[in-house]
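Typical record was shown:
=====
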Amino acid sequence: MKEKLNTYFDQRKDYGAIFIRLLIGFHLIYGVQDNVLSWERMIEFKDFLVSHQFPFPFVCAVVSVYMQLICGLLYIFGAFIRMAALVMITNFLIAILMVHLGDNYPNAFPALAMLFGSLFLLFNGAGKFSIDLSFKNTT
C-alpha cells in the first residue's frame, strides 16, 4: 500500500507546485489590495516604511505594493515564475531585514512564508497547470 501511494504521488509531483503558487499568489494580492484600491492606505504604508527608516519610502511603498500585486498574479497563472520569485525573494529579504529582524516569530511568519514559498518556486519552477512554458518541467 505504501509503495503504491509513493508511486502514485511520485508520478504526479509536478502538480504540487500549484498549491504553493495559489496560496502565495493569493496572499500577495490580498496583502496589497487595500493599498492599490485606497491611496490613503498607500500613504499609511509609506508612513510605516518611514518609521522603519526606509530610504525613499514613497517610492519603496509604491514599488513594493505593485510588485507584490503583479507577482501574485504571475504566481497564480504560473507565468515567469522564476523571475517573479527573484523579485519576491528580494522584496521579502528586505522586509525581514528592515522590519522583522528581532521581531517575534508569529509576526515574522507571513514574510518568512512569502520568502520560503518564493524560494521553492525559484528552485522548482511553475510545475503543471501553468502558462510558463519557458521554464516548465516537461519530464
